[in-house]
Amino acid sequence: MSDLKIIGIEAPIVWENPKANRDAFEVRIREVASGADIVALPENFTSGFSMNTDKVDSWESGETLNWMKGLCAEFDIAICASVAFKMPDGGARNRGLFVRPNGEFDFYDKKHLFTLGGENDNYIAGEERKVVEFRGWRILLQICYDLRFPVFSKNRPEDLYDAIIYVANWPKPRIHGWRTLLQARAIENQCYVVGVNRTGEDPSGNIYTGDSLGLDPLGTVLSEGHVIELMCDRTVLDDFRKKYPFIWDGE
């Protein structure tokens, strides 16, 4: 079974402007996509963490999903990100997307909405977690605030996954928690972890420093910076779990 290369791109986000953000991220994707298997982008990458759901992306239009499909097909990659979508029924979802090169996709609606920022008043929570399969790997999709709820991400023998991708808008004052919890999720679940955060500042004055990380199953930081490159090694993962079967002991 082959190894898996995940690229994470952190960047500032243009507030409530899906087209401008698609254009900006396309430039960055084109710079790094060669040789990647998955490219991950931050949470709500087309709008920022906006509670004005009349100004976010539209699920019905298909513009962002079709844009992702086109890039996935062109570069033979999957793209993983979350988008704030206004839905046809008038509600809104913070929807994680995992789009494959053949155009097929899975989605995960954020389970844990950030009440401190009013997300629970403006978005509809998802109900179930989502594990996707790609090129022989099983990957858990998670969004920002989900990081604080370890029971939700617990790796179980009957539904074993190999990596977690967290996409986020995680602000500077709590960045120590972001880095520490990413390491904890890798250690306790014996898996690779990618955390992709935005940079810049939003209109509310929240500052984002990125601090995107790629970690191995020991919680060791293998990559960090504006572009992270994490090579997930199947042999390393399998050998580590055989030597230390902690996941199975926890049942």
Written overview of the protein:
- By secondary structure, the chain is an alpha/beta fold.
- It contains seven helices and 15 strands.
- It has helices at residues 18-32, 63-75, 119-122, 150-153, 175-189, 234-243, 246-249; strands at 4-9, 38-40, 57-58, 78-86, 92-99, 105-109, 130-134, 137-143, 163-168, 192-197, 199-201, 207-209, 213-215, 221-224, 227-232.
- Strands 1, 2, 3, 4, 5, 6 and 15 form a seven-stranded mixed β-sheet that branches.
- Strand 7 and strand 8 form a beta hairpin.
- The protein is globular, with a radius of gyration of 17 Å.
- The two termini are 27 Å apart.
Class by SSE composition: alpha/beta
Poorly predicted runs of 5 or more residues: none
H/E series: EHEEHEEEHEEHEHEEEEEEHH
Q: Give me the count of strands.
A: 15
Specify the overall morphology: globular
Overall mean pLDDT: 97
Distance from N terminus to C terminus (CA atoms, Å) equals 27 Å
- DSSP strand content: 25-35%
What labels describe this entry?
7 helices, seven-stranded mixed β-sheet, 251 residues, 30% strand, alpha/beta
Task: Give me a quick take on this structure.
By secondary structure, the chain is an alpha/beta fold. The chain is built from 7 helices and 15 strands.
Task: Write the topology of this structure.
Layout: E1 4-9, H1 18-32, E2 38-40, E3 57-58, H2 63-75, E4 78-86, E5 92-99, E6 105-109, H3 119-122, E7 130-134, E8 137-143, H4 150-153, E9 163-168, H5 175-189, E10 192-197, E11 199-201, E12 207-209, E13 213-215, E14 221-224, E15 227-232, H6 234-243, H7 246-249
Parallel strand pairs: 1-2, 2-4, 3-4, 8-9, 9-10
Antiparallel strand pairs: 1-15, 4-5, 5-6, 7-8, 10-13, 11-12, 13-14
